Amino acid sequence: MALEYIRNFSGQILGTIETKPNGDQVARAFPSQLILGFYRKEYDHTTDFSYRILARGNVLSGLIYNNHE
User: Which domain holds residue 48?
Assistant: First the structure.
């Protein structure tokens, strides 16, 4: 599993994206670690924490940035 930190322009960590071995990803808020959404590689779509489809493709970083507005 790989863990990517998403930061703002001043270097503050906003969240993380964890990539599973099968290519699926999970976005979490930082530091609370609340799940913001999922990307399912097999279906090529992003869902929110309650599995509602938000977009085709991977927009997890947008969920993290949106969480901090």
Answer: 2-67
